[in-house]
Design a protein that fits this description.
This protein is α+β, with helices and mostly antiparallel strands. Helices cover 16% and strands 44% of the residues. A two-stranded antiparallel sheet has the order 1-2. Strand 1 and strand 2 form a beta hairpin. The two termini are 25 Å apart.
């Protein structure tokens, strides 16, 4: 599954897990990507967007 928002382009971020002894290991933070169905230009489209964009779509009244 692709971890990129098709609306805003949000991608996974990289960083370090830091233990109590201050050892560092690499880790990734993944965006919360959800598949939704939209009506675009009169036809159904299935896109994957982050939950921030989903909230914005709901607020603007874009989703049915």
């Amino acid at each position: 599954m692709s971890s990129i928002c098709q609306n805003c382009g949000k991608r996974p971020m990289a960083g370090n897990n830091v233990s109590h002894s201050h050892r560092k290991t690499k880790r990734r933070w993944l965006p919360n990507i959800q598949p939704i169905t939209l009506y675009m230009y009169g036809e159904k489209r299935r896109i994957k967007i982050c939950t921030r964009c989903l909230r914005t779509f709901n607020h603007k009244g874009i989703l049915p």
